[in-house]
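Appendix C reproduces, verbatim, an entry submitted by the partner laboratory led by Prof. M.T., so that reviewers can inspect both the input and the predicted structure.
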Amino acid sequence: MALLKKEYTQQSLHNLSLQALNHLEQLPLFRQSNCFAIYHALKGELQTSEFIDKWHNKKNILLPIVKGDDIVLQSYMGRDSLKPGAFGILEPTKTPYTTTKPDIIIIPGIAFDKQYNRLGRGKGYYDRFLNNLQIPKVGLCFSFQLIDKIPSESFDIKMDYIVTNMGVISYSNELQDS
């Protein structure tokens, strides 16, 4: 994946991010949501900061923070509430952990496949967090991160949708330009 990503300029990755996020915005379950959880991107991931800022005053946004070996959600209260946390990921610091349940959760990955499997960074944070969370799970990635097959284990949590700059892959397993 890193080799493929190097073929793109920062500007082209930014444009691909905007295309993917536009597809996400068109997804009915996103439009109908009042609260969503999303990640604050690391360098090289599909960028979400502009998207988060865009929706900040329109929907309740929750960001994951790493607490020990787990992820907990915290309300996003604006850019000035973010500080680098575990692994240098920007995390909210000015609000307590929330028990608010998001309507959907948007998840990063190194790669996804068309069977809705996700390849994460190997620590299992999202798999543990999502294990008992019964809400739609949306994988978000560049189209070049969508591959044929990812090895999966019984504890790996599948996505319900995968959104790329090319469109949405949903239950029908067909790419749909949303």
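The longest strand covers residues 60-67. Additional entries are available on request from the coordinating office.
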